[in-house]
C-alpha cells in the first residue's frame, strides 16, 4: 500500500470517506485487519506527530465498524477495500483521563470477565474460544494527571499484555515515543506500525480536501471571495495544505485564524500561511497587530490546565502568574486574538457525590475518572492537545511556569479553607505542584486530602518516589484505594482518613479533621497494631476501688494512639468517662488472640481436650482509652439483655463492610469499609464500635445523636447473625 492508492481510488470513481476525507491506504490496512484477512497483522499500532489526524482517522473507521452508524454512510460509493465487514462493533475502551488500572477494569466489565485482580483479566481473555477485538484510541490522553506519565503505564501494563494475548485483535493509537516499545514486544508478522507522517501513509489530496471543506460556506465559513468562488477556494486550500506539510492541526488552525479575522489576509501571499502549529499562533498574532508572545502567555494557563479544562474565573490570575505581570488588559483586549485556539466545554456531570458507599471488588473497580466537581459550569481548554504541547515547549522554563501557577492557585483558596476553594483548585492543585516538583511540600494538609478528588490526588502522589513522601502522604496513599473504590463524598473520605491517621500514629492529623467543618460519623479513640485477632467483644470490669484492674503496656512495647485534645469518651455528649480507680464499672474490649501473645491470658480448654495447637488467649484493652488492662478475663461482664435492647444503635456486617444504624428509624448513621478483611466487630451499648482486621484493632465512638429506641420484641443481642460480637469471651468455637 502507498499514497498512490489515493489516486487510484479517485481514478476508479470512489468517493472519499465523508468524515475522514481520504486516507485510503490506511483505511484499507485497517479494513484488512478488521476482517482478519490472510497476512494481515493481529495488532496494529497507529502513531504520528501531534495533529497528524490519528483521532479523526480512528473515528471515521469506527463509524464503519458500528452496525447502526454504518447505515448512515454511503458505503456503496466508497472503495470496497476500505469498508470493513458488517460485524459486531469492536470494544472501544477510552483511556482518556483514566489510569491503567481503570482502563483494565473497563475492559473487564465490557466483556463480563470473572476477574478479581488485573492479572486475571488477561488470563480470562486468553481462555476465550472466540477472539475479541479491541480498539484503544487516544492513549496520549491517558491518566487524570498529565505529569504522571500515565500513557507509558497504559502501554506497559495494558497494551503490551493485551498484544501478547493470542485471542486479542488489537488496534491502538499511541504516541510515537511509545509505538516502538509496543511493537517491539511482538514477533514480526503479528504487528504493523502505521505512522501517519511517513510517506507510505501520506495523504496530500485528503489534506487539500480537508482545507477546502472547512473553507466552504456550507461548513460555516463566512462569505468571502476565497470561500464562495470554487477555483479561488481550491487554490487557497492547496496552498494551505502544501505549507502545512501533512499536519492536519496546522491546516485547521490556519483556516480558523483567517475565518475568525479575515481582515488583512491576502490569499495570494503564501507568507501568511503557517508551516507549523507554532507558526499558526505567531502569524495570527502578527496579522492582528499583536505580539505573538502576548498570545502565547494568554494561552499558557490553558496549556497547563488539567482535567476537562480551566474555569474562566481562574484564567486571568493564572495568566498574570505565568507572565509575571498584570495581563488583565491584554486579556480584555485579546478575546478575538485567542478565539481561534480556544474551545469552551461544559463540565461532565458529577459522578462522585454518592451518599451510599459502594462495595465493588478490587481497589480500582470504580470507573470514576474524576469527581466532576466542575459540573454545570463552562470550562475553557485549547482546541487540541498538540497546541498545548507547542505552547508549553516554547516556554523558557516550564517548571517555573507551573510553580507560578501552583502558587497562584494556592493563594486563591479563601483563608486556606478547602471547603471554600474553587473545585478546580481542590481537585487539580496536586497535579500542578507535581509538575512543578513541589508536591511533597503540599502533602501535609488533612483538609486538602479529604476535599480533593481521590483519583487525581492518588495519581499525583503515586508519581512521587516513596522515599520523598512524608508520613501523612504515605497514610493517604495506603488509604487511597479505599477512597477511590468507595466513591465516598468528602465527609466520609475525611472519616476514613481520620481513622487511618490514628492507626499510623498521626493523631494530630486525625484531630485536625474534627476542626475543619466535616460531619464525621465517628471519632477514632485508639488503634493497636495487633496481629492475629480472631474476634472482639465489649464488656466491663466490675468496680475495684482502685485495687483491681490496672493499665498494662502494649504487647509490642508501643503505646496506642488517642487524638490530642480528646478526652476519652467525650466524643459523644453523655458518653461514659470512667477512670481506673473509680467505683464505676470500667468499659473494656476483649480480644481473642493467639496463645502466647504478650499480655494475654490463655483460655482454659474444655475438660478432656488435650489437643495441641490452635491455642486461644484473651487480651483486655480499655474501651475508651489507649491502654491495655491487666485483669482476669473471667471478671468481664457482657452487656445485659436490657442494656442491649435499650442501646440506640445496631450493627450489621457484610463481607467487607459494616453499618451502624439507629434503632429508632433504621437510618444508617455510619458505614465502614476496609481494605483488609474484618476478623471481628462489636458495638457497645454506648456506641463504641470495635473492629478487628488483619492490620489490628481500632475503636471508634459513633458521633450521631441517637433518639431513644423503643423495643417491641424481647431483648436480644444487637445486629444480625453476621454481626455477633462473639459468643462470650471465648468467641465462636463452631
TrEMBL record:
It comes from the Bacteria. Keywords: ATP-binding, Nucleotide-binding. One of its GO terms (molecular function) is ATP binding. Residues 704-718 have a biased composition (Low complexity). Residues 348-367, 724-734 have a biased composition (Acidic residues). Residues 347-375, 539-613, 704-734 are annotated as: Disordered. The keyword Ribonucleoprotein does not apply. This is ATP-binding protein.
Amino acid at each position: 500500500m502507498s499514497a498512490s492508492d489515493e489516486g487510484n481510488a479517485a481514478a476508479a470513481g470512489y468517493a472519499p470517506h465523508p468524515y475522514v476525507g481520504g486516507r485510503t491506504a490506511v483505511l484499507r490496512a485497517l479494513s484488512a485487519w478488521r476482517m482478519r484477512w490472510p497476512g494481515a497483522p493481529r495488532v496494529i499500532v497507529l502513531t504520528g506527530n501531534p495533529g497528524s489526524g490519528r483521532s479523526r482517522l480512528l473515528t471515521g473507521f469506527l463509524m464503519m465498524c458500528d452496525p447502526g452508524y454504518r447505515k448512515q454512510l454511503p458505503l456503496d460509493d466508497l472503495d470496497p477495500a476500505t469498508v470493513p465487514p458488517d460485524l459486531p462493533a469492536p470494544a472501544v475502551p477510552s483511556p482518556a483521563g483514566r489510569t491503567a488500572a481503570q482502563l483494565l477494569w473497563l475492559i473487564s466489565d465490557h466483556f463480563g470477565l470473572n476477574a478479581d485482580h488485573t492479572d486475571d483479566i488477561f488470563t480470562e481473555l486468553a481462555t476465550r474460544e472466540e477472539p475479541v477485538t479491541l480498539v484503544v484510541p487516544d492513549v496520549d490522553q491517558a491518566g487524570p494527571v498529565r505529569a504522571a506519565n500515565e500513557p507509558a503505564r497504559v502501554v506497559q501494563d495494558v497494551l503490551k499484555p493485551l498484544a501478547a494475548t493470542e485471542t486479542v485483535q488489537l488496534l491502538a493509537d499511541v504516541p510515537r515515543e511509545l509505538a516502538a516499545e509496543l511493537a517491539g514486544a511482538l514477533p514480526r508478522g503479528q504487528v504493523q506500525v502505521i505512522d501517519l507522517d511517513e510517506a507510505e501513509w501520506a495523504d496530500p489530496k485528503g489534506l487539500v480536501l480537508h482545507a477546502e471543506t472547512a473553507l466552504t460556506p456550507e461548513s460555516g465559513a463566512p462569505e468571502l471571495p476565497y470561500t464562495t468562488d470554487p477555483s479561488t477556494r481550491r487554490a487557497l486550500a492547496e496552498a494551505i495544505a502544501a505549507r502545512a506539510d501533512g499536519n492536519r492541526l496546522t491546516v485547521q488552525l490556519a483556516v480558523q485564524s483567517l475565518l475568525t479575522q479575515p481582515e488583512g489576509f491576502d490569499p495570494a501571499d503564501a507568507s501568511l500561511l503557517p508551516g507549523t502549529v507554532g507558526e499558526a499562533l505567531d502569524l495570527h498574532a502578527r496579522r492582528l497587530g499583536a505580539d505573538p508572545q502576548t498570545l502565547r502567555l494568554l494561552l499558557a494557563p490553558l496549556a497547563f490546565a488539567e482535567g476537562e479544562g480551566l474555569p474562566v474565573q481562574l484564567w486571568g490570575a493564572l495568566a498574570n502568574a505565568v507572565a509575571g505581570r498584570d495581563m488583565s488588559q491584554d486579556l480584555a483586549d485579546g478575546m478575538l486574538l485567542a478565539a481561534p485556539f480556544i474551545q469552551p466545554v461544559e463540565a461532565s456531570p458529577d459522578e462522585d457525590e454518592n451518599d451510599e458507599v459502594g462495595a465493588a471488588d478490587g481497589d480500582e473497580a470504580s470507573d470514576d475518572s474524576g469527581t466532576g466537581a466542575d459540573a454545570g459550569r463552562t470550562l475553557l481548554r485549547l482546541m487540541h492537545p498538540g497546541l498545548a504541547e507547542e505552547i508549553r515547549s516554547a516556554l523558557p522554563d516550564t517548571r517555573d511556569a507551573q510553580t507560578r501557577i501552583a502558587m497562584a492557585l494556592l493563594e486563591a483558596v479563601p483563608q486556606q479553607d478547602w471547603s471554600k476553594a474553587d473545585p478546580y483548585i481542590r481537585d487539580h492543585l496536586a497535579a500542578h505542584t507535581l509538575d512543578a516538583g513541589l508536591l511533597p511540600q503540599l502533602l501535609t494538609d488533612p483538609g486538602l486530602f479529604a476535599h480533593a478528588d481521590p483519583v487525581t490526588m492518588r495519581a499525583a502522589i503515586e508519581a512521587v518516589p516513596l522515599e520523598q513522601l512524608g508520613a501523612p502522604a504515605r497514610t493517604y496513599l495506603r488509604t487511597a484505594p479505599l477512597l477511590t473504590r468507595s466513591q465516598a463524598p468528602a465527609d466520609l473520605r475525611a472519616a476514613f482518613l481520620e481513622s487511618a491517621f490514628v492507626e499510623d500514629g498521626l493523631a494530630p492529623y486525625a484531630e485536625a479533621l474534627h476542626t475543619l467543618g466535616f460531619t464525621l460519623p465517628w471519632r477514632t479513640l485508639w488503634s493497636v497494631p495487633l496481629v492475629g485477632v480472631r474476634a472482639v467483644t465489649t464488656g466491663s470490669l466490675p468496680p475495684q476501688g482502685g485495687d483491681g484492674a490496672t493499665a498494662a503496656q502494649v504487647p509490642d512495647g508501643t503505646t496506642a494512639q488517642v487524638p490530642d485534645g480528646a478526652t476519652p469518651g467525650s466524643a459523644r455528649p453523655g458518653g461514659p468517662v470512667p477512670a481506673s480507680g473509680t467505683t464505676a464499672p470500667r468499659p473494656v474490649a476483649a480480644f481473642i488472640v493467639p496463645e502466647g501473645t504478650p499480655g494475654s491470658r490463655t483460655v482454659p480448654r474444655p475438660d478432656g481436650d488435650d489437643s495441641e495447637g490452635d491455642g486461644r488467649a484473651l487480651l483486655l484493652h480499655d474501651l475508651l482509652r489507649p491502654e491495655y488492662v491487666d485483669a482476669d478475663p473471667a471478671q468481664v461482664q457482657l452487656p445485659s439483655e436490657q442494656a442491649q435492647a435499650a442501646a440506640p444503635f445496631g450493627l450489621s456486617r457484610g463481607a467487607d463492610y459494616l453499618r451502624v444504624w439507629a434503632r429508632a428509624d433504621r437510618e444508617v448513621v455510619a458505614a465502614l469499609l476496609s481494605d483488609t478483611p474484618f476478623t471481628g466487630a462489636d458495638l457497645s451499648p454506648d456506641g463504641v464500635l470495635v473492629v478487628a482486621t488483619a492490620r489490628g484493632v481500632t475503636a471508634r465512638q459513633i458521633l450521631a445523636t441517637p433518639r431513644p429506641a423503643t423495643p417491641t420484641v424481647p431483648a436480644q443481642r444487637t445486629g444480625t447473625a453476621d454481626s455477633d460480637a462473639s459468643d462470650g469471651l471465648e468467641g465462636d468455637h463452631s
